[in-house]
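hi! just following up on the protien thing from before. the input was this:
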Amino acid sequence: MMKSPQQTIYDAVFKASLDAGFRTFDFLPAKDERYPFVYIGEQSDDDRVLKTVVLGEVRQTIHIYHKHTERGELAAMVDELRRRMWNLGKTEGKPFRCTAASGQMIPDNTTGTPLLHGIIEAVFRF
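and the predicted 3d structure came back as:
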């Protein structure tokens, strides 16, 4: 069975994070996981059928967690992943490209340890 464009994009984003040397998960790991780490999270998509071709848009959320004292390193990780998103393209099957990427950094106290949570929202078209 051929991979969907959505899965192809997810896999490419996951590989880009690994290739950057970041510990990367497809699930949110346990609270005692060491920092920093990347979690390739939520994905949503919209498809359009045009006669004989399907075009689509995939929105991929990437989460980066780090200690609150390491803002500079977290910012560098966010920047590196955003740059890698821009360079993704055809990996298997249908070609795709990143058309937008936004980011934010927010405090996170969900573990009882003060953290910073970097979030990238990347938009891909295929």
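The two ends are 19 Å apart (CA to CA).
The chain has two helices and five strands.
cheers
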